Amino acid sequence: MQTSLRHPSSPLAPFALGCVYFLMASAALVSSRFEGGLAFIWGANALLMAYLLTSRTSDWPGVLIACAVASALSTALWGMGLSAAVPMACVNLLEALIVALICRRFAPGGKFAGSMQPLFVFVLALCGPANLIAGAAAASVASTVTDVPFGASLLQWYTGHVLGGLTCTPILMMLMQGELRRWFGQTSRRAKWEAMCLLLMFALATAYVFYIAHFPMLFALLLPMVAIVFRIGNLGAAASVMILAIVGGMATLTGHGPLHMIPGTLGERMQYFQLFLAFSFLLSMPIAAELNSRRRLFQMLQESEARYRAIAENSGDVVLNISVAGIIEYASPAVAEQIGCAPELLVGQDAADLVDPKDRDQMVAALHRALAQPGDVQTVEFRPFISDEGREWCEMLVRAVVDERGMPTGLVSTIRDMSRHKARQRALQQAAALDSLTGADTRRAFLEKLEEEMSRVRRGGRASLLLIDIDHFKAVNDCHGHGAGDRVLAGFVERLRPGLRGVDSIGRLGGEEFAILLSGTDVERASMICERLREMVSAHPVRIDSGEMIRVTFSAGLVSLGSQSDGQAVLDAADKALYNAKHSGRNCLRLAA
After folding, report:
1. Where are the domains of the chain?
2. Which residues are in the PAC domain (predicted)?
3. Separation between Cα atoms, residue 10 and residue 586, nearest integer Å
């Protein structure tokens, strides 16, 4: 039978549970029908609910039929007779099905004894719709076939079924799910002896309170129950409630215990006792569920801490724990390699002190953003404040650590060296900014420099722009091929560079059209520079692959940057001057109007 309970899919499960249900129902009817109506004690439905909550729905039909037959037989033999057998069987099944369906819908998983939310759903389902609906139906049947009125029958049903379900369902579910077996397999011998001693002492204390004490001392049992919950957990809570139910129930039935001091019938005393059991359950099981959740959380935190330590201590990146005030609380061993100091020397230091003063504000702002937005990872690049020489770039990823209320309690950050990445980035930017054939600036890069120079001119500087076009370049391509044309373009820029200063810029705007930005130069001096460039280019022909020498000349348009409003206007003015130079016989310079 125990195997069937642990393996509900067994073919013997319906018959086994039906037999156990019949025995439990018969015992309740024989011992607790004090007023001739419904039983005051009922734990048989707890067995059915425990099964439904721990098995597949495909296994339900056989067990429901078996328990319905067992309920009908026990009612016919020991209860309200044959006429009430079938209706009461349907009502018992209705109660169990309502609880099972609600728990399956709102608390899937079946382990409501181990966490707060499923336990809360179970208690609400059992005390609410399940027994309000089933209790009304059962009271209607009982008030029809017996002399007990509807109200009294409803109270008998409600107290017996609710309290029986609260008391018995958790421990039966644990048995069916194999938690007792796992507890024995995973618990040390010392812990097992401790649990047995605690439960034995609780049983003796319960016997003393109910059989020996001359004063009502039910409150004295609450402290050992809580101690058992803290030391043993879910199984201890369920076992202590079961011990209290067995010892206290037997004492109350036989006229012993503090409840015997209450005036009234035996049925009323049993109802008071079951109410005490309910309060004991609602004290111990939620505490056990919360402790179980905290133990799981603590275990997860330990595992997370172990992973974090392993990563932090073996990673090449620097890992820092930073307080809300910005003080370093932990530094990983990678600090020695990356920063060049022992990790313990950084503890207690302001994290901003690691950063170059020029980038400190950005780094502090990133820390503040991480605290303000705990769920987001903030990224900031900075230069470390190591020495005056060779300051390199680092990248910091930082995220807030929050407490159970979601409030930030600190920061975790990783810092990695970005120097190589920055160098590659600069190289790519430089490559993208240079024309691959001639080495001059690309059109986009040159226009950006032009806008920057015009901004400087607006602040009181001066500069000039030369727009240049190689004369008769199409004829070079037509006569000698595009390879020769490329060689002429590259040679043309080579011959221009010696005549330019370091602050000047040359860009290829497209085809054979070039532009030269002469910084700090007025139109008169720019004209002289242009004439010198024409002479240098003309005096040094370009040798192409065939060995032939090609003489190169160019036409140019010159404009002052201060005379125009924006970069496009400057280019337009220079283009008009270049147009005039081409129509004036080429190989000459013309000034913009």
Report:
1. 1-185, 187-310, 315-422, 434-591
2. 378-430
3. 103
Residue 243 burial by CB count (10 A; 0-12/13-18/19+): exposed, middle or buried?
buried
* Distance, CA of 426 to chain centre: 36
In tens, the pLDDT along 59-76 reads 899 999 999 999 999 999
Name the class of domain 315-422.
alpha beta
State the CB neighbour count (10 A cutoff) for residue 16.
19
Position of tokens 């503890």? Answer: 347
Fold identical between 315-422 and 434-591? Answer: no
For the chain, which residues score pLDDT lower than 50?
Answer: 1-8, 387-391
Residue 333 is encoded by which pair of tokens?
């061993």
**pLDDT in the model for residue 63:** 93
Give the separation between CA 143 and CA 87, rounded to whole angstroms: 13
Nearest in space to 510 (alpha carbons), one of 551, 473, 563, 463: 473
Query: How many Cβ atoms are within 10 Å of 481's Cβ, its own excluded?
Result: 14
Residue 580 pLDDT: 93
| Distance in angstroms between the alpha carbons of the first and the last residue of the chain | 109
CATH of domain 1-185: 1.10.1760
The residue with tokens 């728990």 is 103
Q: Residue 292's pLDDT is what?
A: 74
Distance CA 400, CA 38 (A): 60
Q: d(Cα 422, Cα 517) in Å, to the nearest integer?
A: 28
Nearest to 574 by CA among 442, 468, 479, 483: 468
319 to each of 374, 416, 418, how far by Cα in Å? 18, 9, 15
For residues 543 and 534, give the distance between their C-alpha atoms in angstroms, rounded to a whole number.
18
The CATH H-level superfamily of 434-591 is Reverse transcriptase/Diguanylate cyclase domain (3.30.70.270)
How far apart CA 312 and CA 338 sit, in angstroms, is 14
DSSP letters, 200-246, are HHHHHHHHIIIII-SS--GGGGHHHHHHHHHHH-HHHHHHHHHHHHH
H/E/C letters for each residue in 19-74? HHHHHHHHHHHHHHCCCCCCCCCCCHHHHHHHHHHHCCHHHHHHHHHHHHHHHHHH
Contact 393, 418 (CB under 8 A): yes
Buried b or exposed e, range 367-378, using 16+ CB within 10 angstroms: beebbeeeeeeb
Q: Give the other-Cβ count within 10 Å of 354's Cβ.
A: 23
Q: How far apart are CA 363 and CA 359, in angstroms?
A: 6
Q: Which amino acid is at 504?
A: D
| AA letter at 9 | S
The DSSP letter of residue 330 is E
Count CA atoms within 13 Å of residue 302 on its CB side. 6
How far is the C-alpha of 175 from the C-alpha of 419, rounded, in Å? 62
pLDDT tens column, 227-260: 888 888 878 888 888 899 889 988 988 888 888 8
The residues pairing with 441 across neighbouring beta strands, listed in sequence order, are 434, 507
Q: Write phi, then psi, for 534 (nearest 5 degrees).
A: -65, -40
Spatial distance between the Cα atoms of 219 and 379, rounded to a whole number of angstroms:
58
